[in-house]
UniProtKB/TrEMBL annotation:
A Pfam family annotated for this UniProt entry: Isochorismatase
Protein name: Nicotinamidase-related amidase
Keyword flag Hydrolase: yes
Highest taxon, organism lineage: Bacteria
InterPro entries on file: Isochorismatase-like_dom, Isochorismatase-like_hydrls, Isochorismatase-like_sf
Coiled coil: none
Molecular function GO labels: hydrolase activity
Length: 208
């Protein structure tokens, strides 16, 4: 028996430090992802899908997202459109020490569509946590973004990190799609394509 999809759009950490600030997103190009975040928010409003704005606020001594700084403020793409619920957090997962889960379940939300930043940190951890809490997850790959890393374990470009994270998400945790595909899905009511670890692995070893 098919369950009726009741979505919420979760707009994660679209803050100034990620848009040319102290921790700039570089892939996909941030201008592209910002435009798609705006499109997703507009479509959600038109379809009656509640929008949740999430904001990461760190201590005043932090090098980014520091409390009271311009970098920590939500970007105008979000503030100009407004939201149905607001969540402030200080950890990657949007569910940690917040009322998000209770708010969603009170409204019988079944599916979370995630946009925002960063793909491989707050987006990924929130998607995993959502699955563990019984939600279905959709991830809009071109309405999110990554940045490069270099540390003891090695280095990776923003494009590599974003691509690999979306592959991992699609294999178990979320239906990964473009913003355009998501708009078509909410218009038609069609279920997005989901996958499994086993099937993803089989395609890899068979070169499909």
């Amino acid at each position: 028996m098919q369950t009726t999809i009741r979505r919420a759009l979760i707009v994660i950490d679209v803050q100034n430090d990620y848009i040319g600030g102290n921790l700039p997103i570089t892939w996909p190009p941030v201008e592209q992802s910002l435009a798609n975040i705006g499109r997703a928010m507009d479509a959600a409003k038109a379809a009656g899908i509640p929008v949740v704005a999430v904001q990461n606020i760190l201590p005043a001594s932090a090098p980014f997202m520091a409390e009271g700084t311009t970098g920590a403020e939500l970007h105008p793409v979000v503030t100009s459109r407004g939201w149905d619920h607001y969540v402030q957090k200080d950890m990657p997962v949007a569910f940690c020490k917040t009322d998000l889960e209770a708010w969603l379940k009170e409204r019988q939300i079944t599916t979370l569509a995630i946009v925002g930043y960063i793909t491989h940190n707050c987006d990924l951890s929130t998607a995993i946590a959502a699955l563990h809490r019984g939600f279905q997850v959709e991830f809009l790959s071109d309405a999110s973004g990554s940045l490069p890393y270099a540390n003891k374990a090695g280095s990776a470009t923003a494009e590599e990190i974003h691509r690999v994270t979306t592959v991992v998400l699609q294999a178990r945790f979320a239906a990964v799609m473009t913003t355009e595909e998501w708009l078509q899905s909410i218009a038609s009511g069609a279920e997005p394509e989901r996958d499994t670890i086993f099937a993803s692995h089989q395609r890899a070893i068979k070169g499909v």
